[in-house]
Design a protein that fits this description.
The complex is a heterodimer of chains A (about 240) and B (about 300). Chain A is α/β, with parallel strands linked by helices and about 240 residues long. Chain A is built from 10 helices and 10 strands. In chain A, strand 7, helix 7 and strand 8 form a beta-alpha-beta unit. Helix content of chain B is about 75%, strand content about 5%. With about 300 residues, chain B is mainly alpha-helical. The chains are: A alpha/beta (about 240), B mainly alpha (about 300). At the A-B interface, helix 2, strand 6, helix 3 and helix 6 of A face helix 6 and helix 7 of B.
Chain lengths: ~240, ~300
């Protein structure tokens, strides 16, 4: 079953092209990476999928269902969660409140929410210890962990995460990436946006490479990692269609 | 000492009104960063609507049925909440992406529409209208100071409403969603929060509180006028800023402090100085603590 299918998605910021004619798919249970240099359109694509910006054209299917006209908060209810760049946790709320809000869209009862909370806290023991602390007092790495935990509160089918390694030291990056693998291990489909190619290809089964808003390269991670065209995409060499 | 106690009592009473209306300012500011200058006029419209409804249901009754006043009060709270929500949907929501200054000018425009709308409505108009119900003068003594039961009940009702809002925002999932929307609307959407609905609910609650304040004002002061929302709105806005705008507890505390300051000022200088004292307090606060009593700068971390 395909968890996500994008057909010829184009997004514009006014007259400026964000992404153009992007077609990609993600199998259920897969980790897929979206790679590309700064400004290639990776974040734009995630935002279009979660619906916080509007696509100009194209079709987005979520487990076969057309998401096209669905408002963004309903997509979350449907099981698609987006952890945005910069974590965007609620700094004025406690860790516990942040987590509770993660389950907001699921419309479940109080009992189910607290059960889910226990499950997530079991996965993230650090957050349990600091449950009542204001989230704004956490370090960058801790905030990233909270952002992932918060996303997991809704028990999503698909987790999209934007640059989880950004601004973190290598040790923290390891922690975050271990968590992502754990999340995938319990059956969650993961669409990962990352600038750090090596890191992403280590955990992803497949990857798509974006350059200037278009997919220029795609394939399984093991073959991409040695592909010279991959570094070309990062160094900004023009990618011709006939490679 | 006795005089001070008297001013303190009257100040708390006055502060209860300010606090209720300040909550509406503060909640809307907290969630949209909008100073809703039309909020005082929701209060004014509520006073006129309750005047008409109470007048109609009181026909043929020689004495006041307080049970009737209570249900009319609840009805007016719902209607005023509805008016505030409608104002949001028609005026502010289409401007969500506009500059905040444009929204504030729209708020002033809305305020004018409401005031002049009441002015030209047959049966309402420009004159002071006598409210159909008034509180009896009977009461109790604290030392040598006389307070009425009506005053006490108004303070208690205001306190309960304020406590209700405080618990709603602080404890419930909806309240947490309100605070989330207040901090980061996009992130709130990504939690599955229906941001437009949360904003609509905030307007509804603010309006309902103004509705309650309006009925109590009518009952206590006995007269209403189409410009009453302007002055009270400014005073409540001052209270919200004194307490720290955007902060629920701050609105209540700001209301009480403004009420007490105004009451003492009136005692010292005379009633015509009430507004001057209120705004002098605002200016002093803005000099020494621009964020208000409970206001704080929210640190943002990348």
């Amino acid at each position: 079953m395909k968890a996500l299918e994008l057909e010829e998605i184009s997004v514009y910021y006014g007259p400026v092209r964000g992404v153009e004619n992007v077609t990609l798919d993600v199998e259920e249970g897969e980790i897929v990476a979206l790679l590309g240099a700064n400004g290639a359109g990776k974040s734009t694509l995630l935002k279009a999928i979660s619906g916080i910006i509007h696509q100009k054209q194209g079709i987005i299917k979520f487990f076969g269902e057309d998401f096209h006209r669905m408002s963004p908060h309903r997509r979350v209810v449907g099981g698609l969660v987006h952890v945005p760049e910069g974590r965007r946790i609620f700094t004025a709320l406690t860790i516990g409140e942040n987590l509770e809000l993660g389950a907001y869209g699921t419309k479940t009862g109080r009992v189910e929410r607290s059960e889910r909370l226990s499950e997530v806290l079991a996965m993230f023991p650090f957050l349990k210890e600091h449950f009542k602390r204001l989230a704004g007092t956490l370090s960058g790495g801790e905030q990233q962990v909270l952002a992932i935990a918060r996303a997991m509160m809704s028990n999503p089918k698909v987790l999209m995460i934007d640059e989880p390694s950004l601004g973190l030291d290598p040790q923290k990056i390891d922690i975050v990436y271990d968590l992502l693998q754990e999340v995938a291990a319990i059956g969650t489909t993961v669409l990962l946006v990352e600038q750090n190619v090596k890191l992403a290809l280590e955990i992803a089964a497949r990857a798509y490479v974006l350059q200037q808003g278009s997919v220029v390269l795609s394939g399984v991670s093991s073959s991409l990692i040695n592909d010279p065209r991959l570094s070309d995409a990062y160094l900004g060499k023009a990618a011709d269609g006939d490679h | 000492m006795s005089l001070l106690l008297n001013e303190l009592g009257n100040g708390i009473f006055l502060g209860a009104f300010f606090g209720l209306i300040a909550l509406g300012y503060s909640m809307v500011y907290g969630i949209l960063r909008l100073i809703n200058f039309a909020h005082g006029d929701f209060f004014m419209v509520a006073a006129f609507v309750s005047y008409t409804v109470l007048g109609a249901v009181m026909v043929g009754h020689s004495h006041t049925h307080w049970f009737t006043v209570v249900w009319v009060g609840l009805l007016v709270m719902v209607l005023t909440g509805g008016l505030a929500t409608l104002a949001n949907q028609l005026v502010y929501r289409p401007m969500r992406r506009a500059a905040i200054l444009s929204m504030m000018i729209a708020a002033i425009g809305l305020s004018q529409v409401l005031e002049n709308g009441v002015l030209v409505t047959p049966g309402w108009g420009a004159t002071y209208l006598v409210y159909p119900v008034t509180t009896p003068p009977s009461g109790f003594y604290v030392g040598s100071n006389h307070f009425t039961w009506g005053q006490l009940i108004i303070v208690v009702i205001s306190g309960l409403l304020g406590l209700g809002v405080y618990l709603l925002v602080g404890r419930t999932l909806l309240g947490k969603a309100m605070r989330a929307v207040s901090e980061d609307q996009t992130a709130a959407v990504l939690m599955g929060i229906n941001v437009d609905l949360v904003i609509a609910i905030v307007f509804f609650i603010g309006g309902a509180l103004a509705g309650a304040a309006a009925v109590m004002t009518g009952v206590y002061y006995g007269q209403i006028n189409y410009l009453m929302g302007f002055t009270v709105g400014l005073e409540a806005f001052t209270a919200a800023v004194l307490g720290g705008i955007g902060n629920i507890g701050g609105a209540v505390i700001g209301g009480l402090i403004l009420g007490i300051v105004q009451s003492i000022g009136t005692g010292l200088f005379g009633a015509e100085w009430a507004i001057v004292v209120a705004f002098a307090a605002l200016v002093l606060m803005l000099w020494f603590r621009p964020t208000g009593i409970l206001g704080e700068r929210v640190a943002r971390r990348m």
